[in-house]
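pinned: reference chain
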Amino acid sequence: MLEILSLIRSDGDPHWCRSVPNWDRGPWLETVLGLRRARGNPRPRLISSHLPIQLFPKAFFSSKAKV
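pinned: its structure tokens
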């Protein structure tokens, strides 16, 4: 899924997918390092997670995030 979203974000150009590791393109939300990387990435951000939906922050549900 991350590869597909990365290609959509880069308008189908695979250069970004090939040159940037997946942990930098879509860092894990539940790790401190991943959260720092996600905040530093330009918008629109790609974020990965395996958290159950009930553990997501409440602000997430009122945001414009796409899941």
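why pinned: The first helix runs from residue 2 to 9. The CA atoms of residues 54 and 61 lie 11 Å apart.
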